Amino acid sequence: MRTADWDNQAIQILSNEGAQCGDCGDQPGDRICPACERCRGWYVAALRKAGWAPTGELQQQLEKARAELAAIKKELDGLTAQAEGAR
Question: Can you list the pairs that 12-20 forms with residues at least 24 positions away whose Cβ atoms lie under 8 Å?
Answer without folding.
Answer: 14/40, 14/43, 14/44, 15/40, 19/43
